[in-house]
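Entry type: protein chain
Record version: 2
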Amino acid sequence: MTAYRTLILAAVAATAVASAAEAQTVLRFSNWLPPTHHVVTEMVTPWATDVEKATEGRVKLQILPALGAPPAHFDLVKNGVADVAFGVHGYTANRFKLTEMSELPFTTDHAVVNSVAYWRTYTKHFAKYNEHEGTHLLGLWTNGPYQLFTKANAFTSLDAVNGIKIRIPGATVERITKALGMTPISSPLTEAYEQISRGVIQGMFQQKETVIAFNMTQHMPVASFVPGGFAHSSQFMVVNEAKWKGLEARDRDAIAKLSGEAMVRRFAAVWEAKEAAALAKFAETGVKVTNVEGKLLQELRGKLQFVTDEWLAEATRKAPEAPAALAEYKAAIPAVAKELNVKP
């Protein structure tokens, strides 16, 4: 009798374990970055751990090697090849027109300030236009501002950079590059080191962190900074819409609390910390910084005003309230900076 009871209890326990295993949803995250990159180690992985904890183990992220090229990651999720992915809007030029608002030049140097102002404005005015159709948008944010890094050409005048080949990550930076008389070379970040080390390009618009993280200071020891950056990189995390809707309501609610502005602040804070750390390393790695200011800065602002004007005209065709949204976004930057008690 005792043996029989033991068998029954073992069977019940096995059934419970099997049921728990069946109840777990594994979300496949396609990762196109090096596994040691801080987007993976300090953003995605800790967030995934928190998701598993918040859902009591019912939802788990499985981080996989890239299931496609970096620009393909939105469609990989939309089409169900991957369940979740991180991506860069600018890798697919003109597809996410409204997100380009956050990429405009001369906004703010602070990644968290820019990201929070961007998120609040985008969700209020632009989310309804469904640029991320087929997915559920978990968050979007920016990293630090793009500044100009070159082998030898400091931005001391427009003539000083005329004709040099520059790697560009997206449409906004491409327009800026052409306007300044440089030659744009489009490529994903994963190819940047090879291009600069082989002399295919003479520089790039990039955030400070990436220049350090990808060991490119020896090839680009000259940095030219403008207040608020030449441009910014809009980034996102999405989950397949059908997969999202298939989760239990309690799990969607739990993940939602870890997403949205909470994710925006969290991920942008990592970028901001990396930017500060990178700047501190410039002196020891031999990077010389030239601050563009005075008459040259005013000339540059005038030269690049068309970037904002063109975006506004194109965005208004898609979203009539784009002018109001842009004004609100610009006003939000100092307001958010004050809220966070930081410099904008």
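Comment: The chain has a mean pLDDT of 92.
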